[in-house]
Amino acid sequence: MNKLLGYLFSLSVHIKLATLIFWVVVAISTVSVMINIDIQKNHTNQIIDELIKTNISSNQAFVSDFILTHNQWELYKFLKSLCLSSMIEEAGFIDNENMIVAHTNTKAYRLGDLFQNQDYTKVPFVQDGVAFGTFVLKVKNQTFFGMLKESLLAHVLLLMFSLLSLIIAGVFVGRLLGRLDLLAHNAQAMIEKRWDAVVVYQGRENDEITHLIQTTTQLMHELKDSIEKEEKNARIAHSLIILGEISSSFAHEVKNLLQPLKLLISPTHIPDAEDMPIIHGALKRIDHQVVDFLALAKPADFKYEKSLHVKPLVEEVLALLQSSFGLKHVSIESKVDEDFRVKMGANGIEIIVMNLLTNALEAAYELSTIELSWKRSQRAGYSLLCVKNRGESMDEKTKANLFKPFYTTKKEGSGLGLFSIYKIVYLSEGYIEFESEHEQTTFCLYIPCEEVS
Length: 453
Hints:
Keywords: ATP-binding, Kinase, Membrane, Nucleotide-binding, Transferase, Transmembrane, Transmembrane helix, Two-component regulatory system. By secondary structure, the protein is of the alpha+beta class. The chain has twelve helices and ten strands.
């Protein structure tokens, strides 16, 4: 029973409403048939009453004379006249002792026999207070199909009305469900922030559902403006925070590099041949930091003009890194789908793939395998780029500072590789997830894309 109820509840609204309308029509038709049968019965009773009133009552004098004079032939003819009605099948007359005086069915009922049939309608015949006997009338049985036949036109009209009601109800239900689907579509578009997919209803209905759709659509547009404004403010605030961190980190790095120069180049100390390599090394590091800082400060040139397939760009980066993989004896497994195009320029794609693979290669164990995959994400409007390697897991401090500029755990690292990835993905309205535990590190980048039809 619970399974049946669960199945019924799982049916679509269209089927539920159509079923409800069907049973309402069936109920109305059944009630109509029952009322018609009752009317037919009442009609039969009216005919009998009319027959008694017009034929028997109006001929009391003649009938009483037939009975008193035992004129059975005239009484028989009178009974035959009663059977001329479409509702009377047989007629008879019995005396006060239920003995048959006359009957139209002479084969079944003989004169002088005791009348014992209870299926007849009995009409007492009384004149001037004297009971002469009883008329017995056999009413024709009105079958159910006979009644339907007599009221065929009414039932045909009822059937046509029912079918017309179903058609009209189907149209109204279809339009109602269409508007509800539109409401659900707009809500899903709002959840996924696909504001361009929000559809404004253009129908002629002006009921509560239409008002609900119009109100929610207006709220969606207001919410869109509010979210875009908040996101813009959040981006500005975030950019200021990043700018502060970059400036602080850059100043700290340069200060550390200037420290030995202050000691080696001073009024009291003249650099000798042993000091020159240290001075040149410090100046070289300062120059490297300045170049990186200037590159970081340049406006982004990775914004796309048209969406791109990523497979050729990934293969190009893999070809450039092939020798590096060979030197460390690390293999690469790459699986890139071609059923999407990312909303990012070629330069941005190459920077992301290059930095991810370089970091994975440096962290990977020898003879291990790096896995790269790029496919459509289950989240609409995004592609998913994942790079996985086996190597030493990151500690909590490294995880907390992973995307901060100039933070690095490498001796020769600049600390800008992952920050560059973060910058590109962030400005492309994507996001990054990573996991590093049990000697396995995985970076997953959600990058906006367009589906290929």
